[in-house]
Write a structure and sequence with these properties.
By secondary structure, this protein is α/β, with parallel strands linked by helices. The chain has a single domain, classed as Aldolase class I (TIM Barrel). Helices cover about 35% and strands about 20% of the residues. It has eight helices and eight strands; from the N terminus they run βαβαβαβαββαβαβαα. It is globular, with a radius of gyration of 16 Å. The termini are close together. About 45% of the residues are buried.
């Protein structure tokens, strides 16, 4: 099965955001990945509700919104209203994760949980059947262009084993340092969705790069 590709607009040209969103529309990407950072949970500030709404205005692909923020429950409804189809929150940022996931689903969005590199997948054992996707952070969150963390392969394998053992339909998303070089092993390890930012937007032909990731052997 071919992977789902989610280009991350964190690496887009913000002065030409409409152009870059329309580029993704023309590609074989499945989703548009939108990183929301608050400068507290991660050491960077990216985009808020008005930018997400602007992206949605031109997007023909579902928005995969990744909230790297503290207290995400305060903003779930607002991001839904801005056009989010998927809302992913961080395990490390939620005091009552099951309740947060239930609220995301009540809003009729796909509910995702992201895990930082140091967080074991086993922490999701009791809720894995309530999660639509798990985002494995294969870099430390906050900045694009970082080097892929090699132990992520084993982490993906453990998560896939947990999903199979529990009969869950959860998809595995990988975010950070994804490239044509490591994509085959990521898929072999169990990944379903590949998020790529700099690798796509700094390439000579971003559409071709997306399509190559989509059709990787």
């Amino acid at each position: 099965m071919r992977p789902f590709i989610a280009p991350s607009v964190l690496a887009a040209d913000f002065a030409n955001l409409q152009r870059d969103v329309e580029m993704i529309n023309e590609s074989e990407a499945s989703f548009i990945h939108v990183d929301v950072m608050d400068g507290v949970f991660v050491p960077n500030i990216s985009m808020g509700m008005p930018i997400v709404e602007a992206i949605h205005r031109y997007a023909k692909k579902p928005l995969d919104v990744h909230l790297m923020i503290v207290d995400p429950d305060r903003y779930l409804v607002r991001f839904k209203d801005c056009g989010a189809a998927h809302i992913t929150v961080h395990y490390e940022a939620c005091n009552h994760l099951h309740r947060t996931l239930a609220e995301i689903k009540r809003l009729e969005c796909k509910a995702g949980v992201a895990l930082n590199p140091h967080t074991p997948v086993e922490f999701l054992t009791d809720i894995i059947q309530d999660v639509d996707l798990v985002c494995i952070m294969s870099v430390n969150p906050g900045f694009g262009g970082q080097k892929f963390i090699e132990h992520s392969y084993k982490k993906i394998e453990r998560l896939k084993k947990l999903i199979v053992e529990t009969g869950s339909s959860t998809q595995i998303e990988v975010d950070g340092g994804v490239s044509l070089e490591n994509a085959p092993l990521l898929l072999q390890s169990g990944a379903d969705i590949l998020v790529a930012g700099n690798f796509i937007f700094t390439s000579k032909n971003p559409i071709e790069t997306v399509n190559k990731l989509k059709n990787i052997a």
